[in-house]
Amino acid sequence: MPECWDGEHDIETPYGLLHVVIRGSPKGNRPAILTYHDVGLNHKLCFNTFFNFEDMQEITKHFVVCHVDAPGQQVGASQFPQGYQFPSMEQLAAMLPSVVQHFGFKYVIGIGVGAGAYVLAKFALIFPDLVEGLVLVNIDPNGKGWIDWAATKLSGLTSTLPDTVLSHLFSQEELVNNTELVQSYRQQIGNVVNQANLQLFWNMYNSRRDLDINRPGTVLNAKTLRCPVMLVVGDNAPAEDGVVSEGLWPGKLTEAFKYFLQGMGYMPSASMTRLARSRTASLTSASSVDGSRPQACTHSESSEGLGQVSHTMEVSC
């Protein structure tokens, strides 16, 4: 990989082009931080405020960052032609190895929100050797049941697409109490993201299947996430709630992410001053000062929805 790929790229994959933005340059053998946004957003709307947060600079100076936009969701994207088949959630995950290989990353630490968290979890299940760790924000590992599917269809008939998506991004309490923030997102979702392309992504996300992850030993040949995982949810949130981009809790999430990276053996000297966490696993790890891939040695904590993993850190923001 060249010394610097900083900027925007369109990457060929088996299921079409992916728009990718690289920030920074590779740091030795360290993994890249790869992000995937929620439905209704793109990498800018979802992650800009978080990654521009002052304390995040202590992290990003140690890692190259790779922002992935789902097909057709980036700023200025052309509308897909009539009859275009949007990739399934499994195919979205299967597009990511092309990105990893294109830039010569050995492995990545993924940060996904909502639909993006689902894609990255699927990616880690299919290509475990490419994923060193995952931060999953407000992931819903379950597919839609018939009642949910019917409710979504009805909502689509009675609400505009931006309003339908807002009910996914925010809890009812936030929709009522944070009207300025919600209105800002309503405008951005309506004006920044191509609406026809968004509808295709929204439909595919709502057609997703269960991630179907099981605890080892409970099912023959159980599928599990083999990497460390940090789960992030809102304090009083449903499965989908809150938006990383507006930084409602960037300080808390940044400190949790530092703690998570330290547990994997990175950034051992990073300051830990503001983290307020709930239900976290004890994380210890072999030190990896030179940036080589650490071998985590952890006290495991299981997460009911995601099966058993190397270790799971749960953070409520």
TrEMBL record:
Query: Its family?
Result: Belongs to the NDRG family.
* Regions annotated as coiled coil: none
Which stretches are tagged as biased composition: Polar residues?
Answer: 295-317
UniProt-annotated stretches for the region Disordered: 283-317
Q: Which organism is it from?
A: Colobus angolensis palliatus (Peters' Angolan colobus)
Tree of life domain: Eukaryota
Which Pfam families does the UniProt record give? Ndr
Family matches, as Gene3D superfamilies: alpha/beta hydrolase
Which InterPro entries does the record associate with it? AB_hydrolase_fold, NDRG
Signal peptide annotation: none
Q: What's the name of the protein? A: NDRG family member 4
